[in-house]
Amino acid sequence: IIADLRIEGARGPLADLTGANADLAAELTIVPRNGRIDIAKSGFVGTALSATAAGSLTGWGRDGELALTLSAKDLSPLSGMAGRKLAGSLTAEGNLRRQAGQTSLVVKGEGKELAAGIAALDPLLIGRTEIFADLTAGNETVLRRLSITNPQVKIGGEGRYGPNGISADAVAEVADLSP
Q1: What is the DSSP secondary structure assignment for residue 33, as one 8-state letter?
Q2: Is-contact 7 21, C-beta < 8 A?
């Protein structure tokens, strides 16, 4: 199956993601007898945001592995959706795997000149920020590692949430605490 869709003249909240024009595309093969879906490529390309996925799923999506990408060259068009003034750019690559009821996601990314519209946080995000997350979800959700690092701040953590409650550990190191 090959599908291409072009969105033109978007307005309102959708335009925050797409801009005036956006493209959706997918190229996949479906094998009905065993519920296998092979995604050669799929993607969304808009003015504010672009995302892709490729990989294979079995059991109609119950198990599988996908390679994911996300890119926002300018976060400011997404400010309306976030309810605060966003700025900067963000790129990320990830690997999503689902097997035997367990889902795992590993994401590596980079932000540049990020701002979240939070006065105490925004000065800490100036420059290049590296982002990493490794988590699994099944009977419980386990954040094996989270790190956000740039010259001003290093934040790291891990945690667990499930039937037995929540536990988490975090460490933050700020280069300069002066206002």
Answers
A1: T
A2: yes
